[in-house]
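FORM 12-B: Structure-to-Sequence Request
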């Protein structure tokens, strides 16, 4: 594949790069083999050695790396947009556990729900997603199969939980749960031998649903097979208080002594962690899935995003469906900025203007692309346009070149239009699925 046009990516959390009239080549393995200005001597020489003509992007379009969703409960897509009036622990009993149990009992329903979920993810430009599943192996294998057929990078977690407030939705014992986790990992590895496309993830739901024996065993399993780990950490006031009451310590310490805070770990939320606790995560190499929408519903505090970024913690964005009602990472980006600005406003009103707690739209775009790729440990260069990186890309269409009318919600009034930072910002604020013309993962169009 050869493409010529405008490319947009975030090299760093504060750096937006817009590259006009560049030439990009993708090999049969779906990796970028050439990326340079179309008028450069390197591009001229490259074109003399091949017979293919490049695809020219319309002037009103640009290519952008696909989004990464670091936290999504696949079975909860069944009731997306319901039950958000309840506190977290009540909501789990009333909605989450019931939905997960229902899909575990009905493979046909599970496949139908997961197939639609995959279609929606592609519509929203999500190329990589970290998924919580259910406790039943078969249902999670269905989830993996659906994501694989959709072509999405999917990291699938079979839930491990040997304690539950719902007696019908729990594994029999720590040993039973560990055996099930080993079996799931083994079957996933035997079916999906292409790394970074569909992989298993060790998934203790969170501390309240896991015994110390189970957590320690999962940490050992993850270490022995170099597996990713995901869970929830310091999410809500009632959850934090439950752990303190039952364990006599913070869930951060419970995870750490169980060897579950590693460079392969992504912990969702972390809203009740102070700055020193965030430093512990950084020391462990653990990443945070920031889910601003669900935090607004289920946490009494916002995540300390500015502080986390300033100290170099790995952070990406998550939709947290169904604790969050939107599958669109663009909404997560916007909500991350809004939440940070509210924190900054509170800071100012408390007469503390020395530090800035707000983030801007470029930083949010970085979190959705390159930051998410780093947090997930995706292959070299993911989230960027550079030689050797996989071609995980979405084509964004801003205006129709024949009519000069903006696509979707976008309106432009200048005769001479060019893709500038201001134009990209307008899309970031107002754009939607109507602006997404195509999506590729590993060079394959979805």
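FORM 12-B RESPONSE
SEQUENCE OUT:
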């Amino acid at each position: 594949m050869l493409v010529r046009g405008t490319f947009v990516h975030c090299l760093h959390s504060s750096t937006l790069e817009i590259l006009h009239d560049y030439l990009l080549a993708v090999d049969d393995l779906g990796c970028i083999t050439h990326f340079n200005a179309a008028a450069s001597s390197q591009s001229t020489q490259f074109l003399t050695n091949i017979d293919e003509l490049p695809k020219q992007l319309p002037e009103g379009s640009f290519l952008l790396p696909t989004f990464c969703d670091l936290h999504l409960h696949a079975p909860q897509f069944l009731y997306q947009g319901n039950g958000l009036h309840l506190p977290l622990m009540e909501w789990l009993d009333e909605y989450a556990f019931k939905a997960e149990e229902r899909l575990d009992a009905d493979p046909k329903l599970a496949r139908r729900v997961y197939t639609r979920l995959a279609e929606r993810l592609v519509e929203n430009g999500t190329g990589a997603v970290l998924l919580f599943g259910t406790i039943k192996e078969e249902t999670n294998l269905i989830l993996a199969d659906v994501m694989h057929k959709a072509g999405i990078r999917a990291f699938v977690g079979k839930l491990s939980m040997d304690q539950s407030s719902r007696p019908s939705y729990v594994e029999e014992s720590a040993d039973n749960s560990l055996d099930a986790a080993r079996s799931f990992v083994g079957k996933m590895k035997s079916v999906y031998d292409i790394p970074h496309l569909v992989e298993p993830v060790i998934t203790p739901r969170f501390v309240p649903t896991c015994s110390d024996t189970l957590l320690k065993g999962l940490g050992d399993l993850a270490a022995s097979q170099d597996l990713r780990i995901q869970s929830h950490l310091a999410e809500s006031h009632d959850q934090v208080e439950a752990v303190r009451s039952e364990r006599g310590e913070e869930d951060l310490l419970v995870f750490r002594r169980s060897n579950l805070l590693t460079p392969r770990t992504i912990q969702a939320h972390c809203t009740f962690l102070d700055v020193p606790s965030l430093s512990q995560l950084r020391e462990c190499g653990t990443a945070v899935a920031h889910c601003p929408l669900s935090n607004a519903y289920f946490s009494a505090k916002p995540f300390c995003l500015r502080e986390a970024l300033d100290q170099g913690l790995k952070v990406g964005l998550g939709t947290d469906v169904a604790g969050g009602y939107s599958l669109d990472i663009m909404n997560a980006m916007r909500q991350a900025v809004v939440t940070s600005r509210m924190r900054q406003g509170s800071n100012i009103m408390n007469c503390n203007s020395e530090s800035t707690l707000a983030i801007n739209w470029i930083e949010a775009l970085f979190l959705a692309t390159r930051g998410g790729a780093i947090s997930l440990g995706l292959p070299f260069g993911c989230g960027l346009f550079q030689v050797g990186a996989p071609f995980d890309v979405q084509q964004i269409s801003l205006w129709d070149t024949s009519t000069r009318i903006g696509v979707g919600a976008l309106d432009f009034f200048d005769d001479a239009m060019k893709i500038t930072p201001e134009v990209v910002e307008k899309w970031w604020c107002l754009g939607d699925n109507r602006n997404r013309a195509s999506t590729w993962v590993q060079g394959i169009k979805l």
